[in-house]
Amino acid sequence: MIRIYDDHFRKALIVENEKIILDVFGDTEGLKVTIAGKVLEEETIVYIKQYLAEWFDLENNLENYYAIVSSSGTLNYMSTAFYGLRLIGIPDLFEAIVWCIIGQQINLTFAYKIKRRLVEEYGRCVVYQGDTYYVFPSPQDFIAVNPQDLLKIQLSKSKANYIIEVAKAFLEGRISKKIVAGLPSFELKQQLLMSVKGIGLWTANYVLMKCLRVHDSIPYGDAGLLNALVKFHIIEDKKDLVGTKQFFRQFKDWESYIVFYLWHSLSKDAKINSVHREK
Prior knowledge:
Elements: E1 2-4, E2 8-15, E3 18-27, E4 30-35, H1 42-55, H2 63-70, H3 78-81, H4 93-103, H5 108-122, E5 124-128, E6 131-135, H6 157-171, H7 177-182, H8 186-194, H9 201-210, H10 223-231, H11 241-249, H12 255-269
Antiparallel strand pairs: 1-2, 2-3, 3-4, 5-6
Helix pairs in contact: 4-6, 4-9, 8-9, 10-12
């Protein structure tokens, strides 16, 4: 879906059926984006700017967060070591949910392989300079797909059924990003997501954090998060939910960011795959 070069990355977008190739460069001044071979309408340019701002959380001022982290004991090094690291989101709600379903009870390496197969089999694509760039499939791309069809990309039977059920929920108008975002409370957002078969508590919390940017949404029970909390001696027992909740109180309104930084701390010095489980 993304091709990475030394100084930038390239990604395809499809906006109102218009196929677009983005080259995204980054430096201390911010992001610079070039559009390959197209002159776009102003409203499309506005959409792309909003998409990138949401994806990289560009409109969020992190200085207050760093002030909190710098006074947080063993985690204070993160305020300088990870300075400028923003919580990369998943702007597409359907993609965020499907990604969680794919990753249930398997390691990340295998989950990425399955996601790639899903995208290449069912997603749309843009061909540019001889290379093919895929776009994550939409719910509409699964209208005629039978759950059995998904088994060939090594999805389990239950996951295949869940993905089709989620696609139906979108197509029938039971959920959408606009509907979930419009609900007045975290609990109602969580409940609506969990009303769809295949979306458990972990997935609901992860999606609210990564897609809807609900900053106090914490994926309790995540293996990577628990490993990090134990690593920094924040808790000694992974079942210590009281201690975990007490820890997050100091990061009010920044809970999702400290979760992201804790995950990142593992990737820096230990190759620990985050495995989550849902029932």
